[in-house]
Amino acid sequence: MTVLASALDVGGADFAAHREAMLAKLDDLDAEHAKALAGGGEKYVQRHRKRGKLLARERIELLLDPDTPFLELSPLAAWGSDYTVGASLVTGIGVVEGVECLITANDPTVRGGASNPWSLKKALRANEIAYANQLPCISLVESGGADLPSQKEIFIPGGAIFRDITRLSAAGIPTIAVVFGNSTAGGAYVPGMSDHVIMVKERAKVFLGGPPLVKMATGEESDDESLGGAEMHARTSGLADHFAVDEQDAIRQARRVVARLNHRKAYADPQVAEPPKYDPEELLGIVPGDLKIPFDPREVIARIVDVSDFDEFKPLYGASLVTGWASLHGYPVGILANAQGVLFSEESQKAAQFIQLANQRDIPLLFLHNTTGYMVGKEYEQGGIIKHGAMMINAVSNSRVPHLSVLMGASYGAGHYGMCGRAYDPRFLFAWPSAKSAVMGPQQLAGVLSIVARQSAAAKGQPYDDDADAALRAMVEQQIESESLPMFLSGRLYDDGVIDPRDTRTVLGLCLSAIHTAPYEGARGGFGIFRM
């Protein structure tokens, strides 16, 4: 084996400083995650409990197989917006009756579980993950439908939710709706379009229009139960396939439905793999607080791959990009990791070849980001950096093996694209609290604007206000810095979550297991034209 040798000085001052900076960021992250866990706040949580109802995450916990993990996705959705952190929806991947499923649960303590623009984005992302990985979908439903004040932002794009449910079913991916409370107006189509529907006695309310709307539209007098209650749908309309006496019974029946799905993974689970040779706790001390300081990504790789065994590809060529082969929880992976931040022509060509090799061998790719982008300057432009960077982006764009991305440090400019950023459809993308991503670094962006403004003033023969320039630069730097932070980006669903570095191996293992539910095959050609 080619076990990586670590040069990390875990007793040194640098390690201690990096660890302290990372722990401070993790404290900030925990505080934001706590907001999502709090839902609508203590008042509404207690009101929900007094009605004898379980909270969204409690329902999920009962649904899952005992002692199995739940990989929550997009927990910071809506962070930095006017909406509650978490966007009134919980999504994630968990194991039910031995089957990996994509689970969504409305949080009724947040405005009755009503869907806002960020809930919609979060739900659509969950559907993407389910479709790509062929994961059965279980919807734990209790929602008042659209958040009406924001209807202009969700009505038209919101139709994609129902489109996705039917496309999942058409692709042979099971869809299950468990209705615990309201599922009204457009929300009625969630159970209406699902393969299997379970409703809770005297709790589920599924109708296109409630009694007030029916009264206004037709003059008819009606009540919730006769109009859309669980017993009516089980006995009369036939919408309910299973009638549950309470929430626990509904969850029990959902587990039995999954047990009878006859849903099989495309690939057998690998044998249990040996853990890395190095302590994952040490991942806290690798990334500097100042991302201008480089770090060796091999130290990260050594702490996440099986037995710390890594066969490096082209180690002497294009040295600022580390590429090589490893296994992670028994699954083969090809790894691309930025070393010194900048991508040159050699790194770009090396990456393109490596991606082609992974596609020839049907091996998933893991991208570990810490890049400031592709190199600029006369020498590099003349050397063909544009066409070589385009070659790498071409390879990433047309690769057909599953991709995973983790933003550890910087992820700026077109380097973010070449390393399979969100726009390039990685199956999963996560960030460490240390990560930053933007079109370029704050100082560089502010400096560019300053130079352009100075040149414009000179061209017009006008004096340049240096004090105003300094104020502008400071303002721009502060704005770009705040907009490049992981919680800001995660709030907009540009990643699937901000994770503790120590959890990286576990998170990637869960993702790789989910990925291997669906068959895949690498591209054997079809990469388009590589400009040489």
Q: Please, what is the average pLDDT?
A: 94
CATH topology of the largest domain: 2-enoyl-CoA Hydratase, Chain A, domain 1
Which parts are unreliable, with pLDDT below 50 for 5 consecutive residues or more? none
Helix content: 40-55%
Give the full name of the CATH homologous superfamily of the largest domain: 2-enoyl-CoA Hydratase, Chain A, domain 1
Which CATH class of the largest domain is shown?
Alpha Beta
- The proportion of residues in beta strands is 15-25%
* Major sheet summary line: 8 strands, mixed
How many distinct helices?
19
C-alpha Rg (nearest Å): 25 Å
Termini separation comes to: 35 Å
Global shape: globular
User: Structural class, judged by helices and strands?
Assistant: alpha/beta
Number of DSSP E strands? 17
CATH architecture of the largest domain: Alpha-Beta Complex
Counting structural domains, the number is: 3
Organism: Streptomyces antnestii
GO molecular function: ligase activity
Domain CoA carboxyltransferase C-terminal: 279-514
InterPro entries: AcCoA_carboxyl_beta (IPR034733), ClpP/crotonase-like_dom_sf (IPR029045), COA_CT_C (IPR011763), COA_CT_N (IPR011762), MCCB/AccD1-like (IPR045190)
Explain what you see.
GO terms for molecular function: ligase activity. This is Acyl-CoA carboxylase subunit beta. Residues 22-273 form the CoA carboxyltransferase N-terminal domain. The structure is a single chain. The chain is an alpha/beta fold. The protein has 3 domains: 1-38 and 269-440 and 484-532, 2-enoyl-CoA Hydratase, Chain A, domain 1 (Alpha-Beta Complex); 39-259, 2-enoyl-CoA Hydratase, Chain A, domain 1, CATH 3.90.226; 442-483, no CATH class. It contains 19 helices and 17 strands. It has helices at 13-38, 42-50, 56-63, 117-133, 151-170, 189-193, 211-218, 224-228, 230-237, 247-259, 298-301, 345-360, 378-382, 385-398, 413-418, 442-459, 466-483, 486-491, 504-515, and strands at residues 70-73, 89-96, 99-106, 137-143, 175-184, 196-200, 205-207, 242-244, 311-313, 321-328, 331-338, 342-343, 365-371, 373-374, 403-412, 428-431, 436-438. Strands 1, 2, 3, 4, 5, 6, 7 and 8 form an 8-stranded mixed beta sheet that branches. Strand 9 (311-313) and strand 10 form a beta hairpin. The longest helix has 26 residues, at 13-38.
